[in-house]
Specification:
With 408 residues, the protein is α/β, with parallel strands linked by helices. It is built from ten helices and 16 strands. The chain is 24% helix and 17% strand.
Length: 408
Amino acid sequence: MYLETRAKQGFNVIQVSLMPGPRKLAVPNRFGEVYLFDRNLDKINEKYFEFVDFVVNKAASLGLFIAMLPATGDTWNPESHNEKGIIVRQDNAFRYGNFLGSHFKSQWNIVWLLGGDRDPYTDDNYATIRLLAKGLKQGSGGTQLCTYHPGGDCSSASFFHEDEWLDFNMTQTGHSNRKLPNYLYTLNNYCMFPVKPCLDGEPRYEAIPVRFWEMKMDSTYRNNTYEVDDSLTPYGYFNDYDVRTAAYWSVFSGACGHTYGNGSVWMFWEKGKSSSLAVKYSWQTALSSPGGIQMGYLRKLIEQYGINNLRPDRNVITNNTFIGENYIASLRAKDGSAVLIYSPVGEKFKVSLSKLKERDISARWFNPGTGIYSNKEKVSTAKLNAEFTPPSAGDKNDWVLIIESNKK
């Protein structure tokens, strides 16, 4: 149900955690199989992979990639610095990676996601990750992409950008702010050398509390999250507008894609189960959350103009301040046929029409919340700069202006 729904909604990659964290290694999956015997990475339970293989194959049948995390961050770099919690180490990381790479070698839809919400702090951490990556590449024959999922407010480029195994960069801009300027991370990564694609791998998630780690939690809320009092979440919950701004800011700054997260879906939470966050909906209900559906609108918009044809160009907007919570982001087709401009709060702006190669052009508005386009209107090119006012203004009134050539 989950995979089929996401495929219909336009998603094309699903992030999956393969090995449970140290505290849950002894907990079997729904078929009674644990991942490791004796907490030993050289004693992997291959029957556990029967369900894993089913998921990977089902995803492939739907055209979905699996971005697979071999090990969560606390298995190789526990925050408690408890040596007993370390499962993946220098002496076994290569073998583990080689095993996984070999096991999934024939699967076209695997992308490897190292790190697991954790940054490397020591030489040992760096060596462990690099050995794991080396094993994955060797085992798979180098046919599967690898990236690194860092901790909050950080990018993989800070640690491994020049490593050959890192095929594209991933940032985590996290859950601390409704309008955290994640476009700055993308713009920075986009300009780095050697050139590598980048995306936001963990932005703000829909339907989880803003700054959830500051919640005033009591002993009863975990099993009664439907009845959580809003006073326990002083900053409220991230909504569809919040996740939209993160997505459009990043993609319109040059990202090759974007990650959507939902608090209930992330945990596959259902009423009566314990929750590590104050979520309010079952995962089945949350699959229809508006923010998730709206990600499909973004994908269709970008693919309509060609992701390989679009480049971030902040100079399209002549009165852009280049920073701030109302930042206006813009893309320009490299053939000069179109420009796309995202205004997060419906503020008017001025556009340099010289960025378009043709003088016969039209403009229309796209609503990111509904996926609906307005009718095209011809644009006068008497002046090189033209001012545009979105159909509505204020918070939650985000719009995309599309200016394009009328000549085909």
